[in-house]
Every structure is written in structure tokens, then in C-alpha cells.
Amino acid sequence: MARILDSLRSGDWLQQDRLRVYPLVIVSVSIIATAYVLFAHGGVLPNGSPFGSDFVSFWVAAREALLGRPEVPYLAADFARAQDAIFGDGNFYAFFYPPHYLAYVLPFGLLPYYAALAAWLGLGLLAAVWVITAIAGRRPEVVLLVLAFPATFLTVAHGQNAFLSAALFGGALLLLDRRPIIAGILFGLLTFKPQLGLLIPLALLAGGYWRTIFSAIAMTLAVAALSALLFGVNTWALFIAQGADAMATLSNGYVEWSKMISTYAMLRVGGLAHVPAMAVQACVSVAVACVVVWAWRPRNAVAFAFRAALLLTGALLATPFGLNYDLFVLAPAIAYAAALGMRHGFAPWLKSLLAFAFLSPVVMLWLTSLKIAVAPVVLASLFVHFAVLAFAGTTRGQTALPAAAE
Predict the structure, then answer these.
(1) Would you tell me how many other CB atoms lie within 10 Å of the CB of residue 173?
(2) How far is CA 375 from the centre of its chain?
(3) Which helix (H) or strand (E) holds 283?
(4) Which residues pair with 260 in a beta bridge?
(5) What is the signed CA dihedral for 361, 363, 365, 369, rounded to 10 degrees?
(6) What SS3 state is found at 323?
(7) Chain-centre distance for alpha carbon 287
(8) Separation in Å, CA 275 to CA 279, 316, 372
(9) Which of 80, 252, 318, 363 is the most exposed place for a label (fewest CB within 10 A)?
(10) Which is nearest to 401 in space by CA: 341, 313, 331, 316?
């Protein structure tokens, strides 16, 4: 037992050959499992929906906008009829996104469903891989690890936008010191998913990144104005009015709480009522925000890699509305911590904790079938460990990531 604990503490068990073989096994198993599910059900999912079922919402919304009906995605009954007219499976996938996200997905409505899905996932994954390899090093094993990350499988299986979220979030952090205006543009584009951005303004204010702040505000206003010109101001009014439906989806469990990653969802699975669960979530969010603000204040001289990792991980902890595929946002966080460790040496337990965080989505997926939610525990463990290392000053005085990625 002592030898096992010592190996976990040092991370020596995670050798180079295992970083090549294990990811290949994970990728192979994911492909085989997906193919089996599809072939066993006639090329569709068990519920009758096409593969990448969440993309149904994006694709049908884009088609409706191209047909001159951009308001339909925000009218649940009309949107359900539009989806059923094409797929006829009786399932409904809501569109809880601002109108500028409708502009993002608009070109994909020109393609057939599976061609659009492939383009959506392929382009998003390429962008995410570019960002993550820029952080952790442009090496084949980094690409393989991204492909093997279980959250990659979850994003592909759902046809979701986590690749885009991670690319914009991680890309903005990557460019923050060197290209602050471009970083602000990327943060502005990330507003299509506002629940992921709760901590970003606090971090930027604490760090004094004023050019990035103004750039992000300008970009947010620009994409909002452009979407209003493209789709009409009424789409914004409908989106805002739809907020009550989004809250009802969360509070009433229309999307299963066991599939979510928030403290709120874990407490609801455990039987706690809406108000006290949200109160606890608020306390967690405030605590996380305080740590992020502390880390991002220049006078504390926290290494940028840990500031970035805290912000990315904290973003997932701070929101009450996050799904399992959103865990892909951990990829750049893990990349930042791993890159710093490879350059300066890993702190005790960090390498093993990063490996556990890497594998955690598949564990969470298995526990979901048992109606057990543990995601916030995993996220909190990673966040606290990053915070402890930052506070201890393991790499104090290093304000930028070394050029390990060059």
C-alpha cells in the first residue's frame, strides 16, 4: 500500500508509454461502443433521435433562420413541430441560446444533417486541438490525449458546442498577455454561453486587463447588433422571455440533474429542494469567485498557468447549469497545469490528480446511470489543489507560461 501511495504521490506510474497506449485504447473503445449502439438501433440512438442529437436543435434552428423564420427556435411549440417534421421521432431539443449563436450555426443549415454535424464537430475539434497544443506543446501525444479525453466523446455523442467553448475560452487566455484585444474578441464571442463566463469579468478586472475588457464589451455589442440586424430585434425579446423556460428546465429537472455537473444539480439529486440547493450553489460560486480574484491580482504573483487553470475550472464550478459535455473545458485547464509541470516539475499528487480529472468524465457517465452526481466533487478537488499550489507559491513570480509549446 505504501508503494502505491508513493507512486500516486509522485505520479511515476504515469509513464510515457502509458500516455501513448492508454489513449489509443480509450479512442478505440469509444469508436467501437458508438458503432455498436448505432448499428444495434438501425443507425439511430436508442430514443430514435439521430446521432449527435443535441445538434438537432442547432441545425433545425439554422434551417428555420435561413427560411426567414428566425423566431421559431424561441417558440417551443413551433420549434417542436419543425423538428418533428424532419426527424419524426417525437423528441424535442430546446434552443436556449442568444440570437448571435444562431448566426454562428447559420452556415451549417445549408448542409444535410450528418454533413453539417461532421463539419460542426470537425471544425470545433480542430480549433480546440490548436489551442490545447499551443498550451501544452505541439506533439502527437497531446493530440492523442485530446482525442482520448472522455469529454471529447461526450461532446461528439451529443453534437454539442463544448469544442467551441474550450477553443474560445482557452484561446482568449492564451492570447491575453500578447494580444489582449484579440483575447477580448474571443471572450466576446464566448457570450453565446453566458453561464461559462460568470467569473471572466472578475478575473479581468482583478488583473487590470482593461484593453481586453473593452474589447470584449465591444465584441459582445457588435455580435448582438449584427444578430439583431440579421434576425430582427424581436428574436432578442423572445430569447429574454424564454429565460423563465430555461430556469424551469433547471429547477424542474427537465434535463436530468444526474447529467449535470453543478453543486446545485448534485444537491437536487440528493433530494434537496430548489431554494436551499441554489443557496448552497451561490455560496460555492462566491467562494470560487473570491479565490479567482485573489489569484488574478498581480501583486500575488501567481503563475499564469495556475491563474488560467483556476479560472477554467472555477467557471465550471460557479455555474448552476452545466452538462457533462461541458467538462471538455477542463482540457485547456489540464493542459496549462501539465505544461507547467513538465517545465518545472510536478508538485506532489498533481500528476495523478490531473490523470484522474482526465478520466473523470467516464466515471461520471457510469454513475449517471445510477443517478449519482459527483462532478462538483471532482471539480472542487481539482480547483482546491490548484488554489493550494498557487497559494503556496510553488512557481511564484512566473507570470507567463514558458515557451514549452513553441
Answers:
(1) 27
(2) 13
(3) helix 274-296
(4) 323
(5) -160
(6) strand
(7) 21
(8) 6, 20, 21
(9) 252
(10) 341
Strand pairing partners for 323? 260
The C-alpha cell at 94 is 430546446
pLDDT digits (tens, 9 = 90+) for 250-301: 998 888 888 899 999 999 999 999 999 999 999 999 999 999 999 999 999 9
The Cα–Cα gap between 78 and 83 comes to 9
Neighbouring C-beta atoms of residue 199, cutoff 10 Å: 25
Backbone φ/ψ region at 329: left (φ over 0), alpha (ψ -120 to 50), beta: alpha
Distances (CA, A) of 140 to 16, 145, 315: 12, 9, 28
Q: What is the pLDDT of residue 406?
A: 28
> How high is the pLDDT of residue 11?
65
Q: Exposure pattern of 344-366 as b/e (b: 16+ CB <10 Å)? A: eebbebbbbbbbebbbbbbebbe
Phi, psi (degrees; rounded to nearest 5) at 233: -65, -30
Which residue from 316, 354, 363 is spatially nearest to 335, judged by alpha carbons?
354
Instruction: Give backbone dihedrals phi and psi of 224, rounded to 5 degrees, phi first.
Output: -65, -45
Give CA–CA dist 368/218, Å, rounded.
40
Estimate the crossing angle of helix 233-241 against helix 210-231, to 10 degrees.
Answer: 110
> What's the grid cell of residue 100?
448571435
For 22, other C-beta atoms within 10 Å of its C-beta total 17
- Which contacts (CB < 8 Å, 24+ apart) does range 210-214 have? 211/180, 211/181, 211/184, 212/172, 212/176, 212/180, 212/181, 212/183, 212/184, 212/187, 213/184, 214/184
Report which of 55, 119, 40, 33 is spatially closest to residue 365, judged by C-alpha positions: 33
User: Which tens digit of pLDDT belongs to each residue from 333-356?
Assistant: 999 999 998 888 888 878 888 988
